[in-house]
Automatic annotation (TrEMBL):
<protein>
    <recommendedName>
        <fullName>Tyr recombinase domain-containing protein</fullName>
    </recommendedName>
</protein>
<dbReference type="GO" id="GO:0015074">
    <property type="term" value="P:DNA integration"/>
</dbReference>
<keyword id="KW-0233">DNA recombination</keyword>
<dbReference type="GO" id="GO:0006310">
    <property type="term" value="P:DNA recombination"/>
</dbReference>
<dbReference type="GO" id="GO:0003677">
    <property type="term" value="F:DNA binding"/>
</dbReference>
<dbReference type="Pfam" id="PF00589">
    <property type="entry name" value="Phage_integrase"/>
</dbReference>
<dbReference type="InterPro" id="IPR002104">
    <property type="entry name" value="Integrase_catalytic"/>
</dbReference>
<dbReference type="InterPro" id="IPR011010">
    <property type="entry name" value="DNA_brk_join_enz"/>
</dbReference>
<dbReference type="InterPro" id="IPR013762">
    <property type="entry name" value="Integrase-like_cat_sf"/>
</dbReference>
<feature type="domain" description="Tyr recombinase">
    <location>
        <begin position="1"/>
        <end position="99"/>
    </location>
</feature>
């Protein structure tokens, strides 16, 4: 992977890039993800599932409202959206929050 590193990738601020230093299409990214899952012998996942997992894990790691706001910013969502979408998935987090307030 490091052999493929090229300063052109960084200069264009691309997170993902093809060998021609351009942004891959959404379909290309999806196809690559499917290939990776198949090679690994695991269930195929969508890009949305990866984002949801990432967001849920971030929310689980937060310990205060400031960190939740930071997580929302990182995800490109509002604080309210993060709370409504990801906070409900973790019952233990709710218990911990109530314990912290009490």
């Amino acid at each position: 992977m490091l052999e493929l590193y090229d300063t052109n990738y960084f200069e264009k601020d691309l997170i993902l890039a093809t060998q021609n230093h351009i942004s891959p299409t959404l379909q290309n990214i999806r196809n690559t993800l499917v290939k990776i899952c198949r090679r690994a012998g695991i269930q195929e996942y969508s890009l949305h599932a990866l984002r949801h997992t990432f967001a849920t894990n971030i929310v689980r790691k937060t310990t205060n409202m400031g960190e939740l706001k930071d997580a929302a910013e990182l995800l490109g969502d509002s604080y309210d959206v993060v709370i409504k979408t990801y906070f409900h998935t973790d019952s233990q987090k709710k218990v911990d929050l109530v314990d912290a307030i009490a």
